[in-house]
Amino acid sequence: MKKILISNKIIFITGVAGFIGSNLAKRLLHDFENIRVVGLDNMNDYYDVQLKEDRLKELEQDDRFTFIKGNLGNKERIMSVFEKYKPNVVVNLGGQAGVRYSIENPDAYIEGNLVGFFNILEGCRYYPVEHLVYASSSSVYGSNKKVPYSTEDMVDNPVSLYAATKKSDELMAHAYSKLYNIPSTGLRFFTVYGPAGRPDMAYFGFTNKLIKGEKIQIFNYGNCKRDFTYIDDIVEGVVRVMQRAPEKRNGEDGLPIPPYSIYNIGNNHPENLLEFVQILQEELIRAGVLPEDYDFEAHKEFVPMQPGDVPITYADTSALERDFGYKPNTSLREGLRKFAEWYKERESKNETCN
After folding, report:
1. What are the tens digits of pLDDT across the range 202-211?
2. Residues 165, 273, 202, 162, Cα dihedral to 10°
3. CB within 8 A of 52, min separation 6: which ones?
4. Where are the beta strands (DSSP E) in the chain?
5. Could you list the residue range(s) of the whole structural domain that residue 22 is in?
6. Would 181 be classed as within a structural domain?
7. Local structure of residue 221 (DSSP, 8 states)
């Protein structure tokens, strides 16, 4: 692997107003003095735009941060960013997220995840970068029976269009790495959560519903396990990966061996959905989001598995540990506690504003 010094460099982050993108940008600006972060986001309304605007507002307080509003699917826009800023490292966290949404709105995934990623690859081709890091997903493992999921496993059976687009991104990155010697690393994220996260994720959506006295739906009758990974652990992994790119070298035929890698970033500790709900309700009571006498049982509805879902996600992180000396380690209780405290603080602010 080639070590990359990211101080004094220009970093281009797509999806910068998103959950992972904004936290990564904040961390980079905090830790590296002479860095410049150029961020792109289309600010779509897939979820509450106010959350995205709040994240951006915080980033824009730093004059080393530049925001560009634009769609990944707009090739002219993307190429103009590469031409103007000539980034040294690109972190592609943009595109359309969510498994269930892909069943109803496939177009958004083709434009954001396929066309959009192609445009990023073209930018890296014509304006060579030291390292392209991009978001893949644990969804690529589909309904694989073998656990924990290893990057050595075959991933040819996606159960959602979202998963298919992420697997396609990995294949396109491999082709571009081979053809144009672009050092690229794909990161398969496992169920990312934490304060100011995505409202479509279970922990956030459940909280919103419980506050309103609505029922929460527990899929597959509670027989699901998820490898929940706290946002700070994800960001730590991304920052470490950014600074070490796959080495460029030629094979016996004189042509480039693709400088290409894939890693899982997960907690390596799947939690049962019912245990997760139990911890969440305890932490919501502790933070004062819900009263101590809240009747949780009356607000639970057990339903079948949703199309596109899988019964378990479980990350084998041995490659990440081997190559970067790192393994996510935030416990689910600690992470949900921080989320509940953030939610309470946000609730208090909203009440003050009203």
Report:
1. 899 999 999 9
2. 10
3. 17, 18, 22, 41, 43
4. 2-3, 10-14, 36-41, 65-69, 89-92, 131-137, 184-189, 192-193, 216-218, 225-226, 229-230, 244-245, 249-250, 256-257, 260-265, 271-272, 300-302
5. 2-196+229-268+314-329
6. yes
7. G
Has residue 284 been placed in a domain? no
Does the predicted model carry a pTM greater than 0.90? Answer: yes
pLDDT at 144: 85
E strand map for 119-254: 131-137, 184-189, 192-193, 216-218, 225-226, 229-230, 244-245, 249-250
Does 150 fall in a domain? yes
Catalytic residue among 47, 101, 134, 162: 162
- Can you give the length of the chain in residues? 354
Q: Which token pair is 263?
A: 């890693």
Mean pLDDT of 157-185: 95
162 assigned to active site: yes
Cα dihedral 236→60→30→242 (10° resolution): 40
Question: What's the one-letter identity of residue 248?
Answer: K
Q: Is residue 202 part of a domain?
A: no
As a 3-state breakdown, the chain gives helix, strand, coil percent values, each rounded to 5, of 45, 20, 40
Q: How far apart are CA 238 and CA 81, in angstroms?
A: 22
Is the pLDDT score of 98 beyond 90?
no
Number of separate domains in the chain: 1
Task: Give the pair of three-digit tokens for residue 210.
Answer: 């419980």
Q: How far apart are CA 336 and CA 212, in angstroms?
A: 19
* Mean pLDDT confidence for 170-185: 96
pLDDT of residue 192: 95
Q: What is the model's pLDDT at position 100?
A: 80
pLDDT one-digit tens code per residue, 44-89: 888 889 999 999 999 999 999 999 999 999 999 999 999 999 999 9
Using the structure block, give the residue that is written with the tokens 């860095």: 35
**What CATH number is associated with residue 261?**
3.40.50.720
